[in-house]
């Protein structure tokens, strides 16, 4: 590892060291972090997709539409209808188990937290 190594390389090296080391130092420094976006959020996926679409449909419309089209490519706009709800549910479920280590800039985590869980 060097000071120019990527976060991904550093994370993988640290993980290898922690998993392969049973020393007192490893137990002191190696904590069990959430492994998936869903476990990092610590809540359940929404079950009310109509409510979620209503809450987010006007936020960053272009990015939302682009993401939802990966699930339902015939979607032309995000509206409060069944197609949009189904696309959102599908997108959320497809991202829920994304490995945190593969989301280096937290963009998936941020989107999933905003779009896929009910706010309190």
SSE blueprint:
Elements: H1 7-19, H2 24-29, H3 37-41, H4 49-56, H5 61-69, H6 82-96, H7 107-116
Write up this protein.
The model has no long low-confidence stretch (mean pLDDT 88). This protein folds into two domains: 1-32, no CATH class; 35-116, no CATH class. Helix 4 (49-56) crosses helix 6 (82-96) and helix 6 crosses helix 7. By secondary structure, it is mostly helical. The longest helix is centred in the last third of the chain and has 15 residues, at 82-96. The protein is elongated, with a radius of gyration of 18 Å. It is built from seven helices and no strands. Helix content is 55%, strand content 0%. It has helices at 7-19, 24-29, 37-41, 49-56, 61-69, 82-96, 107-116.
Could you say which structural class the secondary elements and strand pairing correspond to?
mainly alpha
Instruction: Characterize the main sheet.
Output: none
Question: Low-confidence parts, pLDDT < 50 over ≥5 residues?
Answer: none
Q: Strand percentage, roughly?
A: under 5%
Radius of gyration: 18 Å
H/I helix tally: 7
Helix fraction bin: 55-70%
**SSE order:** HHHHHHH
Shape: elongated
How many domains, as an integer?
2
How would you state the average pLDDT, rounded? Answer: 88
Distance between the termini: 42 Å
Number of strands: 0
């Amino acid at each position: 590892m060097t000071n120019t190594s990527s976060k991904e390389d550093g994370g993988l090296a640290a993980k290898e060291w922690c998993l392969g080391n049973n020393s007192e130092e490893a137990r002191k420094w190696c904590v069990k972090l959430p492994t998936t976006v869903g476990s990092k959020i610590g809540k359940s996926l929404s079950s009310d997709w109509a409510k979620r679409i209503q809450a987010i449909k006007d936020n960053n419309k272009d990015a939302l539409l682009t993401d939802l089209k990966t699930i339902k490519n015939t979607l032309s706009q995000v509206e409060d209808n069944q197609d949009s709800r189904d696309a959102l549910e599908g997108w959320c479920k497809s991202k829920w188990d994304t490995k945190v280590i593969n989301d280096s800039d937290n963009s998936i985590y941020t989107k999933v937290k905003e779009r896929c869980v009910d706010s309190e």
